Amino acid sequence: MIKLLALDMDGTLLNSQKKISLENISAIHKAIKAGVKLVLCTGRPPFGVRPYYELLSLAQENEYVIVDNGCAIHRTSDWKVIDSVALDKQDIHYLYSLTQNSSIQLTLFDEEHYFVVGETPSPIVVRDTGYVFTSPTEISLEEAVSGKYTMFQAMFLAEKETVDFFEEKYASDICQHFSGVRSQDVIYEVMPAGVTKAFALERLAQKLNIKVEEIMALGDANNDLEMLRFAGYSVAMGNGNAAVKEIADFITLTNDEDGVAHAIHKLIETEKGE
Fold it and tell me: In this structure, are 80 and 199 located in the same domain?
């Protein structure tokens, strides 16, 4: 029996216009009413999630969100952090060093800010901040490592060709010390070593006394792979990449065809005899 529904957001719950369809909202509420715990699992920071939770009319519910690709777990009744892992100042120094002599920019998330380190934000960074309902905050390297802020996740942003070169040159070294993933053409994401969506989901499931086989996870991209492998039942979006589809137990419709609702109706409601 499914007791926890782990949902990626971009490319999964959200359609290509970054909206949640009424069909998906209705299906989520049916699942929660049936006793299923909802956990949004996203690379977004918390300020990029809360408006969607309010749209779901779940802002005061005792549910959970996993943000920053597993770096932090928030309880939605009060949005307190109940578990987290952060980058340290040595991490930030090293990551910033990789941006030298390149147009790629290092960005960092704390609970409230989308920082860009040492430079004026590029148009790509400005566009990405808009997707999470904020604007970029410029910060010096010295201030970023001062200890004033708890930095959870780092992202490198640039044009696709620049990120291609960056990934080819540095990904191997990065992944020896961090969790790194190419989540989008223009973004390479970096979390503390061992941190993924699956890492946080496992810790939360233990806290809630939910077994692995009682978890259903839905995703579409590389930063969902560990979560899909971990869950007892994995669902790939119809718009998901080949790697995601290859490991999934089931492939649902696309994010523009209410794929989340389709999966919930097919798997959870059928299981409960509806």
Answer: yes
Is 110 labeled as catalytic in the residue annotation?
A: no
Residue 76 domain boundaries: 4-84+195-271
The answer to whether 166 and 104 have CB atoms below 8 angstroms apart is yes
- pLDDT tens-digit series, residues 134-174: 999 999 999 999 999 999 999 999 999 999 999 999 999 99
In this structure, what CATH number is given to the domain that contains residue 240?
3.40.50.1000
Distances in whole angstroms, Cα of residue 100 to Cα of each of 43, 95, 175:
25, 10, 19
Do 95 and 184 have their domain in common?
yes
Q: What is the pLDDT of residues 5-35, one digit of tens each?
A: 999 999 999 999 999 999 999 999 999 998 9
- The domain tally of the chain equals 2
Query: In 140-184, which residue ranges form alpha helices assigned H by DSSP?
Result: 141-144, 160-177
Question: Which residue of the set 8, 110, 128, 224 is catalytic?
Answer: 8
Q: What is the pTM of this model?
A: 0.95
* Local structure of residue 183 (DSSP, 8 states): E
